[in-house]
Design brief:
It is built from 14 helices and two strands; from the N terminus they run H-H-H-H-H-H-H-H-H-E-E-H-H-H-H-H. It is mainly alpha-helical. Strands 1-2 form a two-stranded antiparallel ribbon.
């Protein structure tokens, strides 16, 4: 029991000390610097004090943030127990590697003729792009499949955004994203090792895929803040800006089901869910503009999804047409 307790605190502290985590202190610090520079040099003093106060103090003391903290503590405990039972990327990689040997028994000489730097570049790029697409697609499903949306509401019920909000998610969503990660990484590793043997490696910084490191150090944490950082129009067509993810959290009906992307905006372009940021957007966050503090209760964060799914099943059995794509938040 003692070792489980120690492991729990170790994993909690690693949220901030491990560079593979979004909340690594280095990424938080760079986000803070970027937001300070943005407020001083781009917004040029317009409500700078107010924004800095919300970034550093007031939002962290809100009911919404208090719910974020509770979800993080509870989910960490839950996943400490569940994780050993989950499918791993090693299991997926072994399974796919064996299947490749079965169905493509004659290997080409790709491993011999491809230079190592090219293999490593291809692997680094493929892993990043495939991972980002899978993240986009599962996020899209979380919004557009009604029973998945009930779980994803836990994330969207945050009405004050801080970098910790990224971890405010229902455990079922956590399970799905962990399965996604194992599938993506496992299949990439298996395919590359099958074709390129021991030349497969990753370009990394602090043991993190270099592309992911760049994304994180350039302020990935600003997505979950109220600092409305926009990119140039052309860049927002390629990469999701912090403002675009804030639009994703907006209570305005015109913003529902927009900007599912994590890093690459092209997926949203392809699937018609892309939305550019506007100069004057003054966004409100949450499930809807009238939500109250009950949204942050443990019942609503954890249990309501199951109750709502039960209700949906009952109404579906009465009238199948009732189960339709989300058009308004509830
Ligand atoms: Zn979402
Ligand atoms: Zn979010």
């Amino acid at each position: 029991m003692d070792s489980l307790f120690n492991e729990y605190w170790l994993q909690l502290s690693q949220l901030f000390s491990n560079s593979q985590q979004r909340l690594y202190w280095g990424y938080l610090l760079s986000a803070l610097l970027i937001s300070a520079l943005w407020l001083v040099f781009i917004e040029k003093g317009k409500s700078t004090k107010l924004n800095l106060k919300s970034l550093l103090i007031s939002h962290w003391l809100s009911k919404s943030s208090s719910a974020d903290y509770q979800v993080i503590l509870i989910n960490k405990a839950l996943f400490l127990i569940i994780t050993p039972l989950l499918i791993t990327k090693l299991y997926i990689a072994t399974l796919i590697y064996e299947q490749l040997h079965l169905y493509i028994p004659i290997r080409s000489d790709l491993a011999d003729i491809t230079p190592e730097w090219l293999v490593v570049t291809l692997f680094t790029l493929t892993l990043f792009i495939f991972d980002d697409f899978a993240r986009f697609f599962l996020h899209k499903l979380m919004h557009e499949i009604p029973w998945l949306w009930h779980f994803h509401k836990t994330h969207h019920s945050a009405d004050k955004l801080t970098p910790l909000t990224v971890l405010r998610s229902h455990p079922v969503e956590g399970l799905l994203f962990s399965l996604r990660s194992a599938l993506v990484q496992g299949s990439c590793i298996a395919i590359f090792i099958y074709f390129f043997d021991d030349k497969v490696d990753l370009y990394t910084v602090l043991s993190v895929n270099v592309l992911l490191f760049i994304f994180n150090i350039l302020g990935s944490n600003l997505r979950h803040t109220h600092i409305y950082i926009r990119y140039w129009h052309w860049l927002e067509a390629l990469l999701i800006s912090p403002a675009q993810h804030q639009i994703h959290h907006s209570t305005l009906p015109a913003h529902f089901n927009k900007n599912y992307g994590a890093t690459i905006a092209v997926w949203d372009k392809l699937f018609h869910s892309h939305c550019y940021s506007q100069l004057s957007d003054n966004l409100q966050f949450g499930l809807n503009s009238k939500q109250d503090s009950q949204e942050h209760s443990l019942y609503n964060l954890y249990i309501r999804a199951f109750v709502d799914i039960g209700k949906s099943i009952r109404s579906f059995l009465k009238s199948p047409k009732a189960l339709k794509k989300r058009s308004l938040p509830d």
